[in-house]
């Protein structure tokens, strides 16, 4: 809720400031048509700068990629465009779309699914993937919006514990399946470390920097410090050993916010790599959604996970 309110205020406040400036400019003879067109252009320009900076850092600290995943000019342009479009829509989904994330009807379920968002986000980022997963037969699907955004991951993990208990009480299920995007995967892992695995059937992480990301140095905040490679908190989390529940890590060779990209490889987990997909665009990518759905349906059917891939991941 805090993230949603902050984004709404930022969007509305920014719109109001621009409107006042545009009115003054119009009174001094500026073209009304240009001023009206300038509002969305300014917004998209800000998103473009954020996207460019993210890709620049990701390229500077990129992992060594095998030849078969190298992209040509057209695929690179598509990669950038998909991430730009996703980021441009994220503010609206998080600011105004979160209210569409209605709770499923309380009913019996063998393994409900709980989606855990990443840093500086809320449940609204799952709007598209949640619908796509439902269409595959996955469900019931619940979400969480934790915060405040720059607090510690331990605090978020405690909030996740409360949410897990709520979901299990509502459904009567013994366990949940957790799906975490970006930092959400670390929140889930810290929950498992500190609160135990008895209430979790399976964990799927998407674009999670299990070994940290250099992009975390760009922003302040406790949770961002915990995402930096080599920090004590992250080292202690990874020193805990193999995952406590069957775990799948879905990651991209071209992640635009996890750098180096192979930081998403989690020892002891089934690591599945995709190519040509940016960090946020993974939540809209059909191949990623299909992988997540297959893993969840396997959990719902109470089937064992597939054998873990090699440490370098597998290419799909």
Give the helix/strand layout:
Layout: H1 2-27, H2 32-60, H3 73-95, E1 113-116, H4 127-135, E2 141-144, H5 153-171, E3 176-181, H6 183-195, E4 200-206, H7 222-226, H8 232-238, E5 247-252, E6 270-274, H9 286-300, E7 314-315
Structural commentary:
The chain has 316 residues and is an alpha/beta fold. It is 46% helix and 11% strand. The protein has a single domain, classed as Alpha/Beta hydrolase fold, catalytic domain (Rossmann fold, 3-Layer(aba) Sandwich). Strands 2-1-3-4-5-6-7 form a seven-stranded parallel β-sheet, with helices on both faces. β3 (176-181), α6 and β4 (200-206) form a beta-alpha-beta unit. The radius of gyration is 20 Å and the shape is globular.
Write a brief caption for the model.
The chain has 316 residues and is of the alpha/beta class. It has nine helices and seven strands, in the order H-H-H-E-H-E-H-E-H-E-H-H-E-E-H-E.
Q: What is the count of DSSP helices, taking H or I runs of 4+ residues?
A: 9
The class by helix and strand makeup works out as alpha/beta
Name the CATH class.
Alpha Beta
> How much of the residues is beta strand, in percent?
5-15%
Overall pLDDT metric = 84
CATH superfamily: Alpha/Beta hydrolase fold, catalytic domain
Query: Which oligomeric state applies?
Result: single chain
CATH architecture, by name, is: 3-Layer(aba) Sandwich
* Count of spatially separate domains: 1
The helical percent reads 40-55%
Can you give keywords for this protein?
316 residues, alpha/beta, Rossmann fold, seven-stranded parallel β-sheet, 9 helices, 11% strand, globular, disordered N terminus, disordered C terminus
């Amino acid at each position: 809720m805090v993230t949603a309110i902050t984004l709404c205020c930022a969007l509305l406040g920014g719109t109001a400031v621009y409107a006042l400036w545009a009115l003054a400019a119009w009174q001094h003879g500026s073209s009304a048509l240009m001023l009206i067109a300038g509002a969305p252009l300014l917004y998209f320009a800000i998103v473009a700068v954020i996207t460019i900076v993210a890709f620049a850092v990701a390229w500077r600290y990129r992992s060594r990629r095998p030849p078969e995943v190298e992209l040509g000019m057209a695929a690179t342009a598509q990669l950038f465009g998909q991430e730009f479009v996703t980021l441009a829509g994220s503010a609206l989904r998080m600011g105004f779309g979160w209210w569409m994330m209605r709770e499923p009807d309380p009913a019996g379920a063998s393994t409900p699914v709980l989606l855990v968002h990443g840093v500086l986000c809320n449940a609204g980022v799952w709007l598209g993937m949640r619908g796509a997963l439902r269409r595959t037969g996955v469900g019931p699907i619940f979400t969480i919006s934790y915060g405040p955004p720059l607090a510690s991951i331990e605090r978020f993990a405690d909030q996740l514990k409360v949410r897990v208990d709520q979901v299990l009480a509502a459904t009567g299920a013994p366990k949940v399946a957790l799906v975490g995007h970006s930092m959400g995967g670390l929140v889930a892992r810290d929950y498992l470390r500190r609160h135990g695995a008895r209430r979790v059937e399976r964990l799927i992480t998407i674009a999670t920097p299990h070994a940290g990301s250099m992009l975390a140095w760009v922003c302040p905040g406790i949770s961002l410090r915990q995402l930096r490679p080599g920090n004590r908190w992250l080292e202690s989390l990874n020193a805990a050993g193999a995952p406590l529940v069957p775990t799948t890590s879905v990651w991209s060779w071209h992640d635009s916010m996890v750098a180096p990209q192979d930081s998403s490889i989690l020892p002891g987990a089934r690591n599945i790599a995709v190519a040509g997909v940016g960090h946020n665009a993974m939540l809209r990518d059909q191949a990623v959604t299909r992988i997540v759905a297959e893993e969840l349906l396997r959990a719902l059917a109470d089937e064992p996970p597939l054998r873990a891939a090699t440490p370098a991941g597998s290419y799909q």
